[in-house]
Amino acid sequence: MIIDRTVTIADPLARANVYDAFSRPGRPVGVERCEILGDDVLVTYDDAVTPAQLIDDVIVIESAFVPARSAPIDDIDAAAARAAAGLGDPELDASRILEKYLP
């Protein structure tokens, strides 16, 4: 039977992980399509080929344990200030943030 499984994932990075897991080569063989619809990910699969438990397990793993990307740093000075506070290093400033020097 063909099943539509919809899961709401508020975090855009986690949502991208789940989408990637079901839409790229290496996805479970029973998955026929995957779409992002707002905060939802819709996975259509054949449960005679891929069991529902595998679909659910992939969703849990990809949304919780495997970050696909890091969010871009928009404000280097603010990021440096947060890092300085968190690390207890008042000398840390934007000149010491590696991402500042990346293209």
Structural notes for this entry:
This protein has 103 residues and is α+β, with helices and mostly antiparallel strands. The chain folds into 2 domains: 2-64, Alpha-Beta Plaits, CATH 3.30.70.100; 72-97. Helices cover 36% and strands 20% of the residues. It is built from 3 helices and 3 strands; from the N terminus they run βαββαα. It has helices at residues 12-23, 52-64, 76-87; strands at 2-8, 31-37, 40-46. Helix 1 packs across helix 2 (52-64). The longest helix is centred in the middle third of the chain and has 13 residues, at 52-64. The chain is elongated, with a radius of gyration of 19 Å. The mean pLDDT is 87.
Provide the descriptors you would attach to this structure in a database record.
alpha+beta
